[in-house]
Amino acid sequence: MTPATHHSTLFLAVRRLRAPLITLIVIFAISVLGLTLAPGIDGRQMSFFHAFYFISYTATTIGFGEIPLTFSEQQRLWVTVCIYMAVVGWAYTIGSLFALLQDHTFQNAIATERFARQVRRIHEPFYLVCGYGETGRLVCKALDRLGERAVVVERNPDKAGEQELHGYVTDMPCLAADASLPETLRFAGLTNRHCRGVLALTDDDNTNLAIAISARLLAPKLPAMCRASSSEVAANMASFGTRHIINPYAKFAEYLALALHAPNSYHLLTWLTGIPGSAIERHRDPPRGKWVLCGYGSFGRGIVKAFDREDVPVTIIDRDAPDGDGHRVVRGDGTGAATLERANIGHAVGIVASTGNDIDNLSIAVTAREINPDLFVILRMNAYANHALFDAFESDVTVVPSEIIGHECLAVLTTPLLEPFLKEIAERNDSWSATLLTRLTDRFGWHVPAVWSVRLNLQRAPALYRHLMRNGNSVRLGELLRDPHDRAHELPAAVLYLHRDDDDHIVCPDADELIRPGDRLLMVGLPAARADFALTVGNGHTLDYVLTGADRPGGWVWEWLADRRRRTPDAG
């Protein structure tokens, strides 16, 4: 469905009401003309002005009065005819108007015009979210919690209508339209200068592919996050330069491989990329040994490849798996104990329930746990509506595709420096990650912290930038990380990554590291620390207090008075 413009909405209304409006005009014209031709009591005819005035307030049922003189019998007869003609004309017109207001096409045109007007009125950065399913809702909720704005496009009108029921703090315009159409994306603000990124999160790979192409051609500098469920679509997206492609099953396979050989790195990654404010519970690490996988679809194949990379043996249970790519295959349904026993579940260390049916996955997990209570269970949850059932079953890991995609989108779009830091984590040994994880969680707890990036330039950190550019001043990183309200205390934040334009990047820089103008910092800490750090680098008085302890008066008048008092000698 193509969005309608203001002109097309007006044209549609005029076209639908053309016949009744013409009918009404003709009735008025005939009524006025007839009244001017009918002779009055004294033989004089009524003027056009008086006839038009009389018909205007009589035919619109405002009132009735014989003006300017008492009517003759002929005039009264004609007025009677005019009254009935006007009733018919107005009934036809009002009926047509009600039919127009109930017309789905016209309602969509009005909603589209209202949506476009809301988008035009946004004068602050926002993200364009295409698809308001489970993933879209999760992303919008997280963006709202972070104080970011979003514009939503969803094809399903029922899902689009749900957006207004979720009580977001910020206003999120939502349009029920096909996001694969370039014109829809234009209406939603793809080419708007305030748009900071587009997220293609629909459950249709072809729609996401179309969005990726539109974003690449219409807004090539705009970062795009695109969901892809198949490797073929992902390869197609990558062929024309889509920057960030997320396959939730492939991404979890990477996480699983990381958890098998570096569990502390995996826990550090999940702690940093979770939804801010949510609690992360450290579960037991996936054991090495024989595993059983039920369901050899796209998700199952990715898991098997992860096991192969880590040299972990796996047995596949599937009704119609072709050959298992060299692995042992047990034909059957994993929900039955007999099939699980044929897969030697009693001697396995873990099981992955990866079918496309949530009830089957729960049945597989329950049956397997009854046979082998020590199993490490990985459950795939396809529909978030079933989360109550999955919460009731204590699995070790629950795979929720919408959460994987949402976490990845937020990490890349809202905190660009987090992606290179996560790559550094994957390349480090597990003992390094264990040390860093312990240091951070001991300080900030296991609730997901605030993670943000800041560039130390004139726009983002004006006070610090001017200080560094003035007479070669130098500032050490540790000096900045003081509480602006009481510099005797340390700011509840830490710098994880320091990025410089000359490719001099430092992971977990020391407190003695000298800061340079233009540096980019990846920071982690309590939510209040973000505002406090922004105050330090943005306000000259606060920066002076943090660096020197001098609490100078604010405002140029008070500074002038203080400076004059220092220069004036004592009277005595």
Which helices and strands, and how do they pair?
Blueprint: H1 6-16, H2 18-37, H3 48-59, H4 73-102, H5 104-120, E1 126-130, H6 134-145, E2 149-154, H7 157-162, E3 174-176, H8 182-187, E4 195-200, H9 205-218, E5 224-227, H10 231-239, E6 244-246, H11 248-261, H12 263-273, E7 291-294, H13 298-309, E8 314-318, E9 328-331, H14 337-342, E10 350-353, H15 358-371, E11 376-380, H16 387-392, E12 397-399, H17 401-414, H18 418-427, H19 430-444, E13 450-455, H20 462-469, H21 477-480, E14 482-483, E15 486-490, E16 493-499, E17 506-507, E18 520-525, H22 527-538, H23 540-548, H24 556-567
Please mark out the parts with pLDDT under 50 across 5 or more consecutive residues, or reply none: none
Total beta strands = 18
Give the % helix: 40-55%
- CATH class label of the largest domain: Alpha Beta
- Looking at this structure, what is the CATH superfamily of the largest domain? NAD(P)-binding Rossmann-like Domain
Query: What is the strand content?
Result: 5-15%
Query: Main beta sheet: strand number and arrangement?
Result: 6 strands, parallel
Structural class: alpha/beta
Question: Rough shape?
Answer: flat
Strand order, main sheet: write it out.
Answer: 3-2-1-4-5-6
Q: CATH architecture of the largest domain, please? A: 3-Layer(aba) Sandwich
Number of helices: 24
CATH fold category name of the largest domain: Rossmann fold
If you compute it from the alpha carbons, what radius of gyration comes out, rounded to the nearest whole angstrom?
A: 35 Å
Distance between the termini: 86 Å
Mean pLDDT: 87
Please tell me the total number of domains.
4
